[in-house]
Amino acid sequence: MQNLVNHILAYLEYLESVFQRNITIHEFQKITSPYLAQFLPYRVHSNPYCIYLKSHPEIWDDCIINQQKLFSLLENGPFWGVCHCGVTEYVYPLKQSLPEEKVIGFISVSGYRTCTETTAGKLRHICEKYDLNYESVHSLFKMHLSADLPDTTLLDTLLYPLSSMLETLYQKECLLYGESPAQAQDADYVLNHILIFIEKNFHRQISIEDICAAFHCSRSYVSHTFKSSTGCNFREYINLLRIEEAKKLLVNTSFSITEISMKTGFSNSNYFSLVFQRMNGISPKEYRKKYT
Q1: To 5 degrees, how large is the angle CA 99–CA 105–CA 111?
Q2: Strand pairing report for 22-27 and 79-82
Q3: Each residue of 255-290: pLDDT tens digit?
Q4: Residue 292 gets which letter from DSSP?
Q5: Which residue of 82, 103, 109, 129 is 20 to 30 Å from 74, comparing CA positions?
Q6: In angstroms, rounded to a whole number, what is the distance separating the alpha carbons of residues 288 and 279?
């Protein structure tokens, strides 16, 4: 199984180099969860425009709600769309074939912009709804989103192997774990909602007790479900998310190391630097110098 995961990750890295845009995987069923640490860079859009908007929790809430609304549209195949924040993206469905065909998630190629009245209206709407400065949002929109949309035929050709590998991974997991559909659905439902909660709140000081309170589960249940499904314990996963976010901020912003440590939820900059060094082999300062 790990060999297949390695091929998927290598292909994702290749696609990133081809498109120079954001490739993300969004799951309605468990696909990459047992290998969560390895797939972290491909779970959330990383362009500075999206990072800025998702620093507002209410906007992130709407992102998650709108992803669920895609479910019925994905039945009809891949399509170009514009998200509620005005980002143009290509959405490619992930489906299982057996025992019956159904949508289990989608791949998004994002980071593009189109200059239409619809897009302009969405920008004005989010600025009014969330009390944001339109000039600042529009400036980030133009600066960090590309107006050059890739050819749709090329996208379909390149995304088909990725979708096939992910669907194969899903089928292998179903055979390996031997869960009944009802049991798998219940476990996935809890896990997915826990992951969403963490992704929305990792920049704050949150604990496993917060998860238990939010989902009315015992500590032992959350710990077991999390570890068995992701291969990480709760704290390890939190730090993985924080460090991935820190990498984006180091490369795409001029925030100081102290500011980045605060924005990503670390209690102090020394601990942030220690964790960063341990996970990446270099300090935050060295990472910024190397990749900017």
Answers
A1: 155
A2: unpaired
A3: 899 999 988 889 889 999 999 999 999 999 999 998
A4: -
A5: 129
A6: 15
| β-sheet with 79-82: strand ranges across | 22-27, 102-112, 88-96, 79-82
C-alpha–C-alpha distance, residues 246 and 279, integer Å: 12
How long is the chain? 292
- Tens of pLDDT, residue by residue over 166-176, are 998 888 877 76
Query: What predicted TM-score, i.e. pTM, was given to this entire model?
Result: 0.70
Contact criterion met (CB below 8 Å) for 248 and 284: no
Amino acid letter, 211: I
Task: Give the list of residues 6+ apart from residue 4 with CB closer than 8 angstroms, or none.
Answer: 165, 168, 169, 172
Cβ atoms within 10 Å, residue 79: 14
On the question of a cis peptide bond just before residue 48, with omega within 30 degrees of 0, the verdict is no
Contacts of 124 (CB under 8 A, 6+ apart): 134
Give the dihedral sign, CA 107/112/118/119. Answer: positive
